[in-house]
Amino acid sequence: EETMFLGLRKRSGIDLALVSGRYDERIIQKIEPKVRALENAGLLCRRGSVVCLAPEALLISNEVFREFVE
User: Fold this and answer.
1) Do residues 28 and 64 touch, judged by C-beta distance below 8 A?
2) 20-29 pLDDT tens trace
3) C-alpha angle 19-63-11 in degrees, rounded to nearest 5
4) Spatial contact of 53 and 12, defined as CB atoms under 8 Å apart
5) Model's pTM, two decimal places?
6) Structural contact between residues 7 and 18, judged by C-beta atoms closer than 8 angstroms
7) Please, are residues 68 and 35 in contact by the beta-carbon 8 Å criterion?
8) Are the C-beta atoms of residues 25 and 36 closer than 8 Å to each other?
9) What is the pLDDT of residues 2-51, one digit of tens each?
C-alpha cells in the first residue's frame, strides 16, 4: 500500500514489474483490480508496466491514493 501511495505521488509513476520483483507477486494480484478500475475511470494511465496518475486526476490525487490504503 505504501509503495503504491508513494509511487503514484511521483509524476513518473510506479513500475509494477519492479514492485513485483521486489515484493511478493501476490501484491500485484491484489492491487491489479483497483488499478484496472481506476484506469477505466480515467484516473490512472498505464504505459507498459508503469502506472501513473492521469493528468485529469492530479487535483484529486488523494482520492486516488485512498483506494490503495483502504
Assistant:
1) no
2) 888 777 778 8
3) 50
4) no
5) 0.77
6) no
7) no
8) no
9) 777 778 888 889 898 888 888 777 778 888 899 999 999 999 999 999 99
43 DSSP assignment: S
43 φ/ψ angles, rounded to the nearest 5 degrees: -100, -20
| 27 burial type by CB count under 10 A (0-12 exposed, 13-18 middle, 19+ buried) | middle
Torsion of CA 37, 53, 69, 29, to 10 degrees: 50
> What's 2's DSSP letter?
H
**What number is the average pLDDT over the span 59-65?**
82
DSSP code string of 7-34 = HHHSTT-EEHHHHHHHS-HHHHHHHHHH
Which three three-digit cell numbers place residue 40? 477505466
